[in-house]
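Q: How do we represent a protein-ligand complex in a form that can be generated token by token?
A: Start from the inputs.
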Amino acid sequence: MMKIVKTAPFQDQKPGTSGLRKKIVHATQENYLENFVQSMMDLLAEKEKSLLVLGGDGRYYNDQAIQLIIKIAAANGVERLLIGQRGILSTPAASHLIRHYSAGGGIVLSASHNPGGKDGDFGIKFNNASGSPAPESFTSELFELTKKISEYRILESDDIDLSKLGRSVVGDMQIDVLDAVADYQDMLAKSFDMTWLKEEFSRGKLSLAFDAMHAVTGPYAKVIFGQTLGEKPDNIVNAVPLEDFGGGHPDPNLVHAKDLVAKMYSKNSPLLGAASDGDGDRNLILGASTFVSPSDSLAVIAEHAHLIPQFSGGLRGVARSMPTSTALDRVAIDKGIPCYETPTGWKFFGNLLDAGMINLCGEESFGTSGDHIREKDGLWAVLCWLTICGKTNKAPHELLRDLWQKYGRSYYCRYDYEGVPQALADQVMKELKDKLTDLKGVTFGGFEVLDADSFSYVDPVDNSSTHNQGFRIFLRGGHRVIYRLSGTGTDNATIRVYLELLEKDTAKIDGDVFETLKGLGNVANELANVTSITGFVEPSVVT
Ligand code: VG1
Ligand code: CO
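Then emit the structure tokens for the protein with cobalt (II) ion bound:
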């Protein structure tokens, strides 16, 4: 039976960089998720509600949230739901299912790289019919609805058994529980030459250590890297998804993927090391004693795209988020293709991909993908690297060296100041904004400021504009410092400072990244008075 429940609105359901993210205690308040999902339902057109995809990264509260969403969907005229088995889908797999089954969209439950478990975070977002995270026009309208909601509709019914594949009916709605891996794997088999890759593995030319970080990619990695390509099970670690990610932080970087890093920096490491995040859209790429910065990874994939079956028709154009290093731009110039600079967040690539203006894009935050789906795709990026290493007979450090010799090296890293009281973070940004125009021509620690601005973006497809997307400081020599506040955190504010130092002298491209960037890091701190305003002497995380 359908029930109408009176509710009071919450004023804080504003989606951030990638959906709504809140601490579990917050997200599990009475009516909190109900309100958000009902608002989503109110915003969806009839056509979109004919078929929706539903799944999440398996973190704490995933299963309860899925049951709740099923009942609200059934009471709101959704005709069919496709759900991953046990309610689990990686973000790239969800994006693929939406496209593959021509769904009207999908609801993806994930707080991505944020910690899980009872004390961790929960997240929810809507992806549109092309599989892309909903654009800002949708999320801002959604936010407006959440501030006014007064009732929600829910079907009173028993929970659905999501452990078995197959069809069932709830109220007037049909539910299909799908294998979370199968369709995604078929899709990847079209993007890559799996038979050839498998041979390269069996000849010992390719080898991979993969760390699923107890998050969603475990089952995917076991099937794709293990069963299909033949990598040894021992080399696919932390492959059992846990609702608290084993107490770890499912963020694949040098800080949180420590075990993998230790393995790759030891003797007898495999050719490639890789890890993915909570929901499977991020990737970390390592070689023997080598860290591949995500910005360089994107540039290497662009440089060698012709070796990847998905790109056999060539790259039409590429894009990177604004803070991502300019390494990609130089490859694009060499190839004579356009390179677009978008605000942070995958949703800004959607229109460019849909319009066929780009077919490869990425972010410095360990996100890379192509036009096969509309999300970043962790395992896909690993398959790109395996393909490029195999076809060129080169290890990651050789591919990086080739890139830097040809184009110069963008030494790159990001300083994160986490848990900064919101008022202080706002003060850092406000003071910086006020002095942006005065910075021009001033020299700090040997770096001369050529220009400084607040980044705005006009989408070349629909002309929508987005403002205040971070401050860009352009320095003489092609160096940059970028400042922005995170839009995915749930604990006070996080200030992100992105450092890029362009070295064109090939005699100087082998330096240590963090050492090389220290001077620029000090300048960045001084420019924005980070230490004097926040009291943080050092960043909390450097990646
Ligand atoms: C961060 C990254 C951004 C990424 C976003 C979602 O956002 O900087 O590049 O798109 O996370 O990633 P922010 O606003 O905290 O800087 V995750 O893997 O949701 O899916
Ligand atoms: Co993610």
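The pocket of cobalt (II) ion (ligand 2) is lined by residues 91, 112-113, 277-279, 281-282 (CB under 6 Å). The CA atoms of residues 445 and 522 lie 8 Å apart.
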